[in-house]
Amino acid sequence: MLSDREYVEKFAERGGVCPFCQSDRLEWEDTEMDATHAYQEVYCHDCGAAWLDVYQMVGWQVVTAPDPSVLATLEKPAD
Description:
The chain is of the alpha+beta class. It is built from 2 helices and 3 strands; from the N terminus they run H-E-E-E-H. Strands 1-2-3 form a 3-stranded antiparallel sheet, with no helix packed on it. The protein starts with a helix and ends in a 6-residue tail after the last helix.
């Protein structure tokens, strides 16, 4: 069985693999989130194992910046 560190390294190298049999024949369920983490159940079609992939919020990235004229019309929060 892979350790957490080995699992993350394999995921970065090859995408998802089963931590038990290292198969890539996996099925991911919908992602669920709480305030700081996201969880995704994964099922291995080869050995039948199931586990949760756990993701942690580390930051954010701009996809589309807001229009400056719209920002100018918004109220600024009080300090």
